[in-house]
Amino acid sequence: MTNRFWTYKTSPPSPLGEGRGEGIRKIIFKITLIIFGCILFHATTVNAQCDDEDFMDLCAEKLGDFTFVKANKIKLSGTTKDGKAPTVEYPFVLSKSSTYVLTACYPGPGNMIVELFDRDHKFIMSNYDKSQKKYYPTINFVCSATGVYYLVYSFANTENACGIGMIGFK
Q1: For residue 50, is it left (φ>0), alpha (ψ between -120 and 50) or beta?
Q2: Is the distance from CB of 105 to CB of 54 less than 8 angstroms?
Q3: Residue 153: which of 112, 117, 118 has the closest Cα?
Q4: In degrees rounded to 5, what are phi and psi of residue 107?
Q5: For the chain, what percent of residues have pLDDT higher than 70?
């Protein structure tokens, strides 16, 4: 078949200089690889920071003059079936008349939330003040009754995250 601009046998050449859209497929493939690589790099960087000893030391500094008791490593991803951010809950025994500090260390964008509940799962306090829309890196709690309490961790403004929640006492 002959055209006044070129001669071709079955189909005109691709505008990218290769046959039947192969050039577009290669470009799409390269873009997909770049996007996937960026996502993988971000996920491994944040998770690697959570396992890093320097990050653990940085979080421990937030305890101040409190004695270290425990560190909870938190890794959450995705959303729940109802579209909310996932949470993880840890039971912990607290003693009457002791003062505790709860920390929320998170190396990425967004914020880590720690909430404290009593043995009946009644909310006591959080490091997020909803009325002022403000996050605090630590909260102090004076225990009025010995018993099992629950620490619930979550992340705000992010779906895949890891962090460390530390507990200290006086």
Answers
A1: alpha
A2: no
A3: 112
A4: -80, -10
A5: 69
Whether 94 contacts 143, CB under 8 Å: yes
Phi, psi of 132 (to 5 degrees): -100, -5
Q: What are the structure tokens assigned to 31, written together?
A: 């873009």
Q: Tell me the residue length of the chain.
A: 170
Which pTM was predicted?
0.67
Dist CA 23 CA 19 (whole Å): 8
Locate the domains of the chain by residue range. Answer: 1-51, 53-169
Residue 163 token pair: 């962090």
DSSP string, 111-155: EEEEEEE-TT--EEEESEETTTTEE-SEEEEE-SS-EEEEEEEEE
pLDDT averaged over every residue in the chain: 79
The DSSP element (H or E) to which 70 belongs, if any, is: strand 67-76
Residue 71, CA atoms < 13 Å, CB-side half-sphere: 20
Q: Does domain 53-169 have CATH number 1.25.10.10?
A: no
Given a contact cutoff of 8 angstroms between Cβ atoms, the answer to whether 62 and 137 are in contact is yes
Q: Which residue has the tokens 């690589």?
A: 37
